[in-house]
Amino acid sequence: MKFSFGLFFVIAIGFAQTPRFSDADRKEKLMRMVPQADALFEKYFAERQVPGLVYGIVVDQEVVHVKSFGISNTSTKAAVGPETMFRIASMTKSFTALAVLKLRDAGKLSLDDAVSRWVPEIGGMAYPTKDTAPLTVRQLLTHGAGFPEDNPWGDRQLAIPDREMARWLDQGIPFSTPPDSSYEYSNYGFALLGRIIAKASGQSYEQYLTREILRPLGLKTATLEPTKNHALGYGRRDGKLFEIPSLAHGSFGAMGGLVINANELGRYVAFHLAAEPARDDAEAGPVKRSSVREMQRQWRTSAFSATRLDADTELRASASGYGYGLSVTRDCRFSRVVAHGGGLPGFGSYMMWLPEYGVGMFAMANLTYAGPAAPMREAMELMAQAGALKPRELPVSPILTSTQAALIQIWNQWSDAGMDLIAADNLYLDQPRASIAAGLAELKKKYTGCSPDGELKPENWLRGEFGLACKEGAVKVSFTLAPTKVPKVQALRFSSVGRPTEALLGIAAARAAESPYGRCSVGEAVSGDGADSASFKLACRNGEALMSLRNSKATFSRAPGQACTP
Fold this sequence. Notes:
This protein is an alpha+beta fold. Helices cover 31% and strands 25% of the residues.
């Protein structure tokens, strides 16, 4: 079918496509991993000697599995179950961040407001340097206010009354670093956010959180006060358990006071997963999806690390940071891991989800600081190794499809007018039209009988590549569209992929054994003339890689999208 260049003008806007999961058996594969996840948490429960523990798995917007172990009360021996309430400590911070964003979206406050606008006592506080700018709401949300890390101290302040906190504020808060210069975890900062929420909403923090966040989310029993069905908190000293009385809700409740059960915490994780991807669906609330996604972006870097489990494994890099009430990490296995732990005397909890994969987990325990992060990470790793975790895939946008059709037509039969129609105004300045035509003519002498091979691979809505299968090998076509009303081609490349000779394939197999990525098998050729040079995809023990051969000499590099090095 001959392509009509007139179609190109039809697609001026509306080319956005929503990423989606393409594996029809995705949920079934994930559910097959449940017994292994159960075993990991059972091992953790036994080895840490936790009185009681409950964990769950969330897929998309559904809690698909909840498993509990042990007891919630050593006196009554009451078993932990999905309805048992646990205090989740600092995981409360993400709920507080949601409340701040809801007020921001309603125009009641700005994240760039000076804290002193809402907490007047801050206005008279002495800053560490004369050139310090006023503290902002955003700095509190991202642990960037310069307040000292205060986990042991802050954990004990949960119940202090507002008047006591006001007295502390009048006395001032010491700084450990200049504001906005680094990341330092501050419970005090989130306690201030609780005061800001109360002032901006005209309600107490507890009232606003309950009415505007918890109940609209369908969290019918979540509360800031311990309840009849809550697990008692325990510590261990000299090998023996002892009960730790629960503190009442007070001025520091916004940093760590929430009490919730597994069913409702799973619903909350599902709410966060439902914010991805960006799309046109109706909003379900109570906070806009775009604001929930905003929480899950890394706004302040906290650490970068590179570790190797042993000499034979790859180097794994990890960049950690904080969003709004949530920690956000990018590492070798996953592009983004959103998580938060919670620890108070008597309790430990953790929640983690992979936004691009639509999978999350959560766990709560009634032992001091027994946050079950380790079995959660291990379970996610096993899911990935088993092929149960696959990210959403981006469908090809209509503008990429129409551009591909135009480029195929130009390959089949060159047309100055056709090329002019799809070229952005910069293209011929970078690649003269005559040069593009001459390059294609030269390629067509070497590669004959070419036809489209496979689907176009989109990198985003305005960039992609596709292949042409030919008798002598293949031609790869990559292009990028310009940010104009009708996106046209701003960059274009036709590159040859010659069919490797038997001799070159033999050299490739031998050189693959030298790969720093561990044992590798040679995959398809992706560039080169196939006689003296070629680049091959490698499937290696330590991930995917690329090997480039030239005159029998091999060089190795990471494959596109791979985050780790050998």
